[in-house]
Amino acid sequence: MRASDVDPFAAVLAPPEDETAEERQSRMQREREAKQASDEIDEQLSKERQLAKRQPKPVKILLLGQSESGKSTTLKNFQLMCEPKAFRAERASWRAIVQLNVIRSVRIILDALTASSSAPESSPRSSSSSRDSLRLDSDLLALRMRLIPLLEVHEALARRLAAPSDAASTSRSAGLSTIFRRRLGKEITVNSNVAWKAAFMRDGAERDSFATDDAVDWDDPEDPGVMLYERADDLRRLWAHPTVHAALERQGIRLQESGGFFLDEIDIVTCQKYVPTDDHILRARLRTLGVAEHRMRLTDRNGNITREFRIFDVGGHSSLRAKWAPYFDDMNCIIFLAPISAFDQQLEEEPEISRLADSVALWTSIIKNKVLQDTNLILFLNKIDILQAKLSSGIRFSDYVTSYGRRPNDFDSASRYMRKQFAAILKDSSPVPRTFYCHLTNVVDMKSTQYVLVGIKDMLMQTHLKQSGLII
Ligand SMILES: Nc1nc2c(ncn2[C@@H]2O[C@H](COP(=O)(O)OP(=O)(O)OP(=O)(O)O)[C@@H](O)[C@H]2O)c(=O)[nH]1
Ligand SMILES: [Mg+2]
Question: pTM for the full model?
């Protein structure tokens, strides 16, 4: 029995039995050429592998902190700093989020009106004169009727966020993870920062186009811009109505301090050809689900050395924190955000826990974590603008932080106190001695934030170069 009779490949691949000398020569030539091409590919791959090994490792930054602490906003500042053109090309998508934010504020107001007009006040902090149900005058009732359809638009926009058209998602974001929409505390959430953006960009629009008008599909029948434009006057009147403010106060809602508040700029955000400014994009609120990795190239102060930076933005909601730990390995730096203006608030997801206490507990657990002991830790005591406004409005810090005692109820004193407390925790709880890097920040203020981020970038590049042995 011949070998080719039992080997199925040999039978197929064997040269024909009646092959002439000429045919044999030509076949062997083809085989030599094919082998040479294959060897060249192998060599190229090997060279690329060697090169990748010699490339400096990327600098990795992890953004941590509770929900609404400002992590995604800090990431937006990084993007503005190093890829402003690409950032601005996404304005069309952020326009949709601002619109969602406006409608969300309307929903909160309508809910507060309903609650206050039907049920007696239950908040212990309300004044006794406001215990009766609020009476909604005919003007307010009419406004409510006219604004209710906006809530349906909210649902439509949310659906679109959840499932961008197949065409958009395949052409612009192939390979990206699926989007999820979850209602965490009634907020719209996505877990990918690119696929949802594609859902609001006009088909065929250049992603790196600077002209935002190009990217917005002004003829889109589902665009809520027309409805918002037509109801601009109603929105203005709603926000100016004293009963609305009374209702919000009764419910303990300070809308102006929450993320995505645009009612003070209703004329701008409802204008016919509205596109958000950088400032509006920074203030737009979209809750993060899961962990998103963003890559960018940053150059040192002298413009000589460029490094790849990878920034990881996580969701801060309590139910999402279990997803953080796998990212702790091999991180160069953690920027921890503590929103210090939240001293008088409770966690939305766990109303019995104070937001400040939660930030302190999180900070302590990050410091104690041995896996992170060699990671640079940078603390942002964030939302100082809101802290300042709160203290000036008479809200007493010592009512919520009793250890503050009789110190003055002003911004300098309260922020200094918190800085000292966070520093003391680092000193007491860190497994190894560490430097305390801390900034008082307002990350919706682009200018001051860029200043802080440039300092962090330079520091990380220096440390990175030292670790790579490139400088002494
Ligand atoms: N006024 C003011 N608003 C801020 C500041 N930092 C963040 N915000 C706003 O607060 C809201 C929440 O900020 P995000 O950056 O989305 O918070 P996050 O930490 O990413 O929240 P999650 O994604 O839920 O974990 C956004 O609307 C921001 O624009 C600040 O320093 N001052
Ligand atoms: Mg976020």
Answer: 0.81
